[in-house]
Write a structure and sequence with these properties.
Radius of gyration: 21 Å
Oligomer: single chain
Number of helices: 1
Distance between the termini: 74 Å
Helix content: under 10%
Shape: elongated
Strand order of the largest sheet: 1-2-3-6-9-12-15-18
Length: 175
């Protein structure tokens, strides 16, 4: 990591001159704000307008897109993609190889397992959990709360055996 600056050309031919972050050697674009005590892993890109808070750790090979905001003391694993305009709260933990879409809100203290996928525009709220992989077809993109791991079944959706068991336990509770 001898070079302080690294020039990278994208597919369209635009050249961006990144600065290597002093703590970890990650590549920070002009206009991005990264706290001095944050650790940005090698080969991690932080794009223009992104903001990474104090005490954060971003793993090797991750990509923080434009205008993303990451709160203080958040841990992001290796190979994670954080989409444009996404907001991740403080003390969150994003597992390695996860994909966080654009315009997503991840509240403070949320823990996402490795290989999690959060679609564009979703909200991951406190007190709920997101399964390891959420197919985009199952989760509406407009406004989404995290999908709970325990399935809730309505009385109409119960099997006949489950309905009998519920009636028996109800009778025992009344006695």
């Amino acid at each position: 990591m001898n070079a302080k600056f690294v020039s990278v050309e994208d597919d369209a031919g635009k050249v961006t001159r990144y600065v290597r972050h002093a703590n970890g050697g990650g590549l920070v674009a002009p206009g991005a704000v990264v706290a001095e005590n944050a650790r940005i892993g090698p080969m991690t890109y932080v794009e223009h307008g992104a903001h990474i808070g104090s005490g954060c750790r971003v793993g090797h090979g991750s990509w923080i897109d434009r205008e993303a905001r990451i709160g203080d003391r958040t841990v992001i694993g290796d190979g994670v993609r954080v989409g444009r305009g996404t907001v991740i709260g403080s003390r969150a933990n994003i597992g390695s190889h996860s994909r966080i879409g654009s315009g997503v809100l991840v509240e403070h203290g949320i823990h996402l397992h490795a290989d999690s996928t959060v679609p564009d525009g979703a909200e991951v709220l406190a007190g709920s959990r997101l399964p390891a992989r959420v197919p985009a077809a199952r989760v509406p993109a407009a406004r989404t709360t995290a999908v709970k791991t325990a399935a809730v079944r309505t009385p109409a959706a119960r099997t006949p055996a489950e309905q009998r068991q519920a009636r028996k336990s109800k009778g025992r509770m009344a006695a």
